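Thread: quick sanity check before group meeting

JM: Hey all, I'm pulling together slides for Thursday and realized we never actually wrote out the predicted structure for the chain we discussed last week. Dropping the sequence here so it's in one place. If anyone has concerns about the input, flag it before I start.
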Amino acid sequence: MEVISEGYFETFPALRCVGDRTRFSFDHVDGGFVAEAGAAAQYEAKWIKNGFLKYTYLALKYVIKFKNVQVDIQIDDKEVFRVDDPSASVFGFSDEIAGFNMLPGNSYLSRKNKDIGFVFARGLKGLNRLKLILKTSSGKHLDMKGVWLARGRKISIESERVLVWEAEGELFNETEKKN
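JM (edit): ok, ran it. Output follows.
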């Protein structure tokens, strides 16, 4: 507060996240089994006090439990395209999200391009989802079959069933099909 009261300020980007609630994120947004694990962290496994261990435990649980869903994606108001079975998706400005190197090199590119980096993991089931989690810790997941990295300023996603979405640990969608 002292720095602010002395008149220092800095501008930085934010993501506007719209679902059944509107949230703003200064770093990342995620969906799929990643977000379902994050949502579950609010009411499951309360016996695990360490946040990283709790999230890791729940991520492993939802790696198995999550059902892929068909989505329609529109980037920057361009043509809508259908993705049959995304398993996970992450959007953000930084490289590392919750200890995982999800978007290697993204921090520089987001500042340079004034956009958002995002990664979708499609068609992954069971052990391939686990492999994705293990590879993201070092950023080596981008060469995996089914992993797609892209950039844009506005991303709209409509799904055939409700997908949970979270922005930096804050849920903003648990009931809507369009985000």
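AS: nice. The chain has a mean pLDDT of 82. Residues 105 and 172 are 27 Å apart (CA to CA).
JM: adding both to the slides.
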